[in-house]
Amino acid sequence: MTQVYNFSAGPAMMPTAVLEQAQRELLNWQDQHTSVMEVSHRGKLFMELATQSVADLRALYNVPDNYQILFLQGGARGQFAALPMNLIGEKGKALYLTSGHWSATAAKEARNFAEIDEINILAEGELRVDRLDFSEIADNYDYVHYCPNETISGVEIFEVPKVGNAVLVADMSSNILSRQIDISKFGVIYAGAQKNLGPAGITIVIIRDDLIGKARQATPSIWNYATQRDADSMINTPPTFAWYLCSLVFKHLLANGGLTAVEKRNQAKAELLYQYLDNSTFYRNEVAKANRSLMNVTFTTGDDELNAKFVAEATACGLHALKGHKVLGGMRASIYNAMPIEGVQALIDFMQKFAQQHQ
């Protein structure tokens, strides 16, 4: 196989057209005969790029005018700490809905800064979300946090939790821009870029205006949402190349049908792979159908040695990064926005041949 398909969970593959444009512009961006990495982030051209990137993301995601878009650093883990420092107020505590590794990790980090209550929303012994209505208790908390897509287990939550008038916070690192959502239902959305937005090194925060300016006094300025807003996300030198690549991704998505087209492609890819898994007697996926991720498809043969052999042979055939996370094992195919349906079909073709050889 001459074509390589990268199924990495992150950093993940990016649109080929975006990488090709970056390659063309690497030594001569905006006719400056220099790289975008070498110009001042406060110079006119980069400031124009930053302003346009915010406008493009706002248009792409239908972000209301009363929300700010910040381009920050520190990844989602940085936001695990920033959230309680900025949002814990009069009620003095937050509620974390845990459905897997990353939502639980966010809750653990938040406990360093505030009182945290945690509710596991998975059904006992199953990879299925069985509770999403918290409207009776949510008002007791300054905010309610959840992770709509757990990359490790491949569990996705498609329905927005009911939290009444409470502030809903979502870690969308692994499913941001995968489909259109109603931003107004959320107080804060945050996401590391390295799956659907761009390269590792930059983090998007979309936050409602009324939630900014409430940070505790001890909050470091780099984590203070008001400070970052007032400085246009530039209280220090931002990761300019990562920001530039994100701006190209936004334009690429806008030029290719927006999120309506993105969602259609993502559903087609996931349906193709899950249909094969459901009809297979050799592989199995253990996530309930209602919560199967469109981004991260987990599967196993049930035999660790056979799983390892699968990953090694798939890699040799140009199907990269299919090894499951060390927490869960097995295999994982991450099929984010940039993965073409041809990559999914190539994976299925390999899976069929491997199963025939080892059934």
UniProtKB/TrEMBL annotation:
Q: Where in this chain does the record put each Aminotransferase class V domain?
A: 4-347
What coarse category fits the chief subcellular location reported for this protein? Answer: cytoplasm
- GO CC terms of this entry: cytoplasm
Say which enzyme class the record assigns: transferase
Subcellular locations according to the entry: Cytoplasm
GO BP of this protein: L-serine biosynthetic process; pyridoxine biosynthetic process
Gene3D superfamilies given in the database record? Aspartate Aminotransferase, domain 1 (3.90.1150.10), Type I PLP-dependent aspartate aminotransferase-like (Major domain) (3.40.640.10)
Q: In the Enzyme Commission scheme, what number(s) does this protein have?
A: 2.6.1.52
**Per UniProt, which keywords does this protein have?**
Amino-acid biosynthesis, Aminotransferase, Cytoplasm, Pyridoxal phosphate, Pyridoxine biosynthesis, Serine biosynthesis, Transferase
Q: Which residues carry this modification: N6-(pyridoxal phosphate)lysine?
A: K195
Question: Which cofactors are named for this entry?
Answer: pyridoxal 5'-phosphate
A GO molecular function term, named singly, is: pyridoxal phosphate binding
Q: Which residues bind pyridoxal 5'-phosphate?
A: A76, R77, W102, T151, D171, Q194, N236, T237
List the catalytic activities from the record: 4-(phosphooxy)-L-threonine + 2-oxoglutarate = (R)-3-hydroxy-2-oxo-4-phosphooxybutanoate + L-glutamate; O-phospho-L-serine + 2-oxoglutarate = 3-phosphooxypyruvate + L-glutamate
In the record's cofactor note, how is the cofactor described as bound?
Answer: Binds 1 pyridoxal phosphate per subunit.
Where does the chain bind L-glutamate?
A: R42
Pathway given for this chain reads: Cofactor biosynthesis; pyridoxine 5'-phosphate biosynthesis; pyridoxine 5'-phosphate from D-erythrose 4-phosphate: step 3/5; Amino-acid biosynthesis; L-serine biosynthesis; L-serine from 3-phospho-D-glycerate: step 2/3
What does the record give as the function of this protein?
Answer: Catalyzes the reversible conversion of 3-phosphohydroxypyruvate to phosphoserine and of 3-hydroxy-2-oxo-4-phosphonooxybutanoate to phosphohydroxythreonine.
Protein family according to the UniProt entry: Belongs to the class-V pyridoxal-phosphate-dependent aminotransferase family. SerC subfamily.
Give the quaternary structure.
Homodimer.
Q: What is this protein called?
A: Phosphoserine aminotransferase
List the source organism. Haemophilus paracuniculus
Q: What is the lineage of its organism?
A: Bacteria, Pseudomonadati, Pseudomonadota, Gammaproteobacteria, Pasteurellales
